[in-house]
């Protein structure tokens, strides 16, 4: 349940983040579209403004037979180029000069301006004329580099001039490098406005009024921090491919989400591309929602976990108490049964002892020893909480009075074997009788006597114990059967469910006992049980063997 709650809240959080991100991306896309539209409109407006100046200049020159330098300079000054003309290098005049008049034209311009003037490059053999840059205002050191350049000698410029002649209106060239850039490689373009002889538009062209533009400055002139921010803006000459890039305002990083708008700038198709500044990272609102959702999911899972654990502990406690009640009832029945068995054993011992006793003192002595043997084994069982009792411990408890005697040698040898409670009682009683007999008549009754008790497992569920006396008095071949013999051969053999081999050989008594080795589940009423979260005592009890 805690995991289900966590996953449910996490799923809701994920859906919320998805919805927020979807809205953010739509809003960003709308802003990109708006930004691209504003930039395209601003560029178009600046080109139209430049075109208006060029048209005005063409109208003025049409009325003149010759264009003096002072007049063109005064015309450019009176235009008062304002902020809307930013990005342009100025306004210029480039007349059509026939190949045969190039020399005289150079001398005329030099005399008019007072500056050296030479047309470069010279028209090729097959060319009939040149279109040199004659005037370019404002005349700066930068613009002076372009004076005398034959624009008709370069293919891109030539194509734009021919198109301007065909349309009769301002026409932009393709991507070029302006002559005034010198060694620079910044991209630029030129807008040409053709000037015809009055009334002979289709027959005689006098030249071109033109405006050169640095593409990067032209693009930057319409960009503001408020408009662009961290977004990327790129201007392409035609299709938006890397080879056509003419100017760019790069974003902090590439995101791949762009909006493109095509715009005609002076009859030249160009593409404005605006790129989002947002990467793949989540927005602030999404991050807050995500963190809050994870926190709520984790807290809910923790609370649910605690409640579930408490419920499990409570159920375990109830089960434990129910089990304890059942065990208590079973223990009561078991106690009654064990008391009856013990009393029955005591009564049997009393009856046999009475029949074999010759005097009250013999009766009391025999009864006392046998009762003490039962008590010693009971003490071992009590220490083990009536669980399994080591066979060696039973032997040591019954033979303890003889183990410290210097007059006899006692040897115990065998593997670790655990006995069930009832089997331990019966086995302990048999050992007591054998030890009592040995101390009175056998190897434990004389100095130098030896007793070997060895055992080994015949199989997994049965152990064989060998009692062998040596060095004691010679055992008579014919002797009356005593209480101990009957106790061992009848009561003990019955309790252990295996016959007892008791041999009174002349060299010493030999007894073979076979004791069952049972699994704990066959006699333990319950295993130790400590339910989670409940401090319960370990309890153990045994059922009948």
UniProtKB/TrEMBL annotation:
The keyword Zinc does not apply. Pfam families: CHASE, HWE_HK. Residues 63-225 form the CHASE domain. The chain crosses the membrane at residues 281-304. It is found in: Membrane. It is an enzyme of class 2 (transferase). Its main location: membrane. It catalyses: ATP + protein L-histidine = ADP + protein N-phospho-L-histidine. Keywords: ATP-binding, Kinase, Membrane, Nucleotide-binding, Phosphoprotein, Transferase, Transmembrane, Transmembrane helix. Its EC number is 2.7.13.3. This is histidine kinase. It comes from Alteriqipengyuania abyssalis.
